[in-house]
Amino acid sequence: MKKLLVSVFTLASLIGAATPVSADQPAKHTVQKGDSLYEIANDYGISSHQLMAINNKRSHTIYPGETIELPVMPNANEKDLLSRLVEAEAKGESYAGKVAVATVVLNRVESELFPDSLRGVILQEYQFTPVSNGQINKPASQESKAAVEEALDYQGYDNESLFFYNPDKAYSAYLSAKEVTTVIGDHVFLR
């Protein structure tokens, strides 16, 4: 019986090590002796190139004890929430604009300036108008859902935008002091 329990515990530990991380869980991996970037990426279902990009690595060299940042990997409910936010925030914008809005939210999860969960970032008070006016409760279009999927695949390759706004609809002295990273449609993206 004891051997069976140890075997079950060992199997559960191995399965848990390779399970994608939810956006509400820490997105980090501690390198163990014998690990490689390729194996870590494979365990989490991402490419080694994306893992390198997220960690600003120029080579595949890693060391035991090193902490590797992982991309945000939301569950189905978190993806739906993000898709609904993208739909409400970027309705009428291009597909690229929708991807950029989703990317801002994902970047905020990774930033020390914002909550460290997807839900926390989206529901943070005074951040997204659709949360306060209820527009986030409307269903997302297929295009917004696809934009979220692309933003998830694009993590690590972006220009680190943390903010966006439409200067025709809002003015912010705080945002005007930030560095513009790109302009897509009516939205200005900044870091």
From TrEMBL:
Family matches, as Pfam families: Hydrolase_2, LysM
MF-aspect GO terms: hydrolase activity
Coiled-coil annotated spans: none
Entry keyword annotation includes Plastid: no
Domain LysM: 27-70
UniProt signal peptide: 1-23
Family annotation (CDD domains): LysM
Keywords from the named record: Signal
InterPro entries assigned: Cell_wall_hydrolase_SleB (IPR011105), LysM (IPR018392), LysM_dom_sf (IPR036779), SleB_dom1 (IPR042047)
Keyword Hydrolase assigned: no
Name used for this protein in its record: LysM peptidoglycan-binding domain-containing protein
Organism field: Halobacillus salinus
